[in-house]
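The instructor's notes for this session suggest beginning with a concrete chain rather than abstract definitions. Hand out the sequence below and ask the class to guess, before any prediction is shown, which regions might be ordered.
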Amino acid sequence: MGVWLRDIFVPALFQSLAAADITTAGIKIAALLSTVVVFVIAVYAQAMKIEIPLSFGMVRGHGIRWPLSFIYTSNIPVILVSALIANLQLWGSLLQNWIGPNWFGAFDANGQAIGGFIYWLQPPDLLRTIITRHTAFLGWTPYMQAMSYIFFMVVGSVIFSIFWVQSAGMDAKSLSKQILSSGLQIPGFRKDERILESILSRYIWPLTIMGAISVGFLAALADLTGALSRGTGILLTVMIVYKLYEDIAKQHAMDMNPMMRKFIS
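After discussion, reveal the predicted structure:
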């Protein structure tokens, strides 16, 4: 995809502008704008977080804030959903080779799904089609295909997000044990794992569900609007860049607070 972006998109954009090809230029500009929109929304969602105030039980007057990101499970759910779709497409292609086109999937000579269950899991390039045909009235099939793709991405992201929280030790019980073992507790509450777990549960499960819905929808939106990369790739880029930004900011914060650095070390 990076090669496509470098070798095809930029030259095609300038060539279409120079040749006054409004349709091609519109497609390229729309793809660029959709990429920017998805990127900005993803950055904004990644920056949203809930901070749980914690205090050191043995050190009075010192405390920290434990952040719980809105996108609690990062982009792991959409990566798993994309992998699931790729595997389903592979099995559909194999079944067609063995028994011919069937209800599970029918593919053309280029390997593109044209029928069956797999067809409804492929994102149509709605924005490109609308600009090419100069109309939004495309019939019910592309829009139904888009809705089924969004539905599968969102529901799949929620399911995988719940499984990931349970298996990766990100649930309230595991997190409360981690916090208490670090000598931290919530001010004003007894140092009890059950109390801390109940408080964390109020935030973790809503964040798990809402964050998964958000990343699933954003990934589907990028795919449906013909962004410069797949939605999974854009979200992965955002997570990596934002994590790097947080690490740099944390390092500067540590440099500016020698007393806290000495305390933590």
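Then share the key points. The first helix runs from residue 2 to 18. The two ends are 44 Å apart (CA to CA).
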